[in-house]
Amino acid sequence: MKRSELVAYLDNLLDIRAISDFGPQGLQIQGQEEVTKLAVAVDAAHEAIDGALAAGAEMLLVHHGIFWGPSKRLAGAFGNKVRRFFDANLNLYAAHLALDVHPEFGNNAELCRLLGLTVVGRYFNYKGLDVGFIAVPSQSVSFQTLVQRFTDALQPPLRVQAFGPEEVRQVAVCSGDAARSMEEAHDLGCDTLVTGELDYTMARAAEELGMNVLYGGHYATETLGVQALARHLADQFGLPWVFVDAPVPL
To answer: What's the Cα-to-Cα distance from 180 to each of 12, 136, 175, 193, rounded to whole Å?
Structure first.
């Protein structure tokens, strides 16, 4: 399909222009006009570029793109990475917060689905957008069962803090780096937090608050959205895709 058609569809589906982020999202590097295969990955890393090119993809769709904060010179390591996209005529599309929060294909929605949780609200505001989900179990479930479900679906969690009740009643779910949302989640009645990486400043907070926390790893918790989105595009347009797995153990 035409790159312009795919980009327009993604921009609309993800409401990409309405969501403030750490840098410009959507099509970050323009490449080939025709997209016959899609590669998806968590990061716009060299390993992801290698995987996309090896698979014959014309577009790499990632969660973490190449723009974060102030503009950078196209020199050094950053310039070398950008040059690889242009040399290969490879499109790069990034969806960060827009994919975290998407109610159907987002990282948090997918985490809730695999853990057997039903979303009942949002929390953890960033620039006017509540990026975390609040969810409840569909039936009685223990914290250890949630940990096992996560482990079975993805990988062993980075760390587990079991300072809350054995039976989980309300869960805050926020992929990536959201340990600092713990106190807000507690104040909203959550007894459990599922997130990616441990923040040292919050290391003792779970015990002090009496909460359960599952730190599943930043990377692992954000592998879900890009794959859910790719499955949707395959169903919608018959677009073949491949997931390039390039883990970061944090």
So the answer is: 31, 21, 12, 11
Q: What is the pLDDT at residue 147? A: 97
Please give the pLDDT value at position 250.
Answer: 72
The average confidence (pLDDT) of the chain is 96
Phi, then psi, of 207 in degrees rounded to 5: -65, -45
Q: Is 112 helix (H, G, I), strand (E, B) or coil?
A: helix
Please give the Cα distance from 48 to 29 (Å, whole number): 15
What is the DSSP pairing of strand 38-43 with strand 241-243? parallel
Residue the block writes with tokens 């327009």: 8
Least confident of 19-23, 34-38, 50-54: 19-23
CATH-assigned architecture of domain 3-96+223-243 = 3-Layer(aba) Sandwich (3.40)
Residue 143: what pLDDT?
A: 98
- Torsions phi, psi for 131 (to 5 deg): -95, -15
Residues of the chain with pLDDT > 70, as a percent, come to 100
Domain 107-219: CATH superfamily is NIF3 (NGG1p interacting factor 3)-like (3.40.1390.30)
The answer for residues whose C-beta is within 8 angstroms of residue 77's C-beta and 6 or more apart is: none
1 vs 94: CA distance, rounded Å: 18
pLDDT given for residue 84 in this prediction: 97
